[in-house]
Specification:
Number of strands: 7
Oligomer: single chain
CATH class: Alpha Beta
Radius of gyration: 18 Å
CATH topology: L-fuculose-1-phosphate Aldolase
Number of domains: 1
Length: 278
Amino acid sequence: MTHDDAAARAALVELSRELGRPDRAWAVLAEGNTSVALGDGRMLVKASGASMAIAVPGDFVAVGLPEVLALVDESADVDPSAGPSEDDDEAVRALFEAAAEQGGRRPSVEALLHAVCLALPGVEAVGHTHPVPVNALLCSPRASLLVEGALFPDQIVVLGTDPLLVPYVDPGLPLARVVRRMLGERLAATGSVPKVIYLGNHGMFALGASPAEVLRITEMAVKVAQVILGSLAAGGPVFLSVEHVARIDTRPDELLRRAALAAGTAASTSPSTNGDRS
């Protein structure tokens, strides 16, 4: 799908301001970033140092997806714990400086991982945040609880059944390469694209078909983290059975709600807190 540049920037401004709202504490100061695929081989991604809470159209830079992915795939078998080489650093610097010459701003280093996500089937928009409840788990020994199962139906509807947890890797090329490999393995094993990528000791990426879906995914991931944290104080989480998860994931009414939420029509199909369907 090809997007008008001005419309894409406007959508990213709206998404970024929602994700960066100070009352939510999902991304403070210059934390976090957002992106959208333009459909012509480029993506718009937040510039380095820009605050999502007060984002404006000029805070986003156009970058070529093939060029970024070529950097990620080059020497992808190198041990990520060793960090990028001097040649890698120079290649990233040259690519981002070229983008800055076009738009006047340098892309965030996370543009590398945004490109990896936007290359996945069905992913048109991405939001990266550091919500406090999510990071409370990601910075603890219990981070795996975020991906071990589902706790309630709306979690399945919005987040799907296969979130991905990635151990801490240095942001930039090493992280993008590890996530690219892990996503390839997940796709080969399940045929599905995760809605959420949790990054140990770092934050989360929400992958959506639209900016509206990215916001919904982030909202639900934060709620899930809050429920898990609360359950730990009451003896620990009790996950739904595999059979119940599969049933909810394929129910016709839930599929309709999932499509409506992804399209941004949540006002008429908002989930209730007790699991009833409107």
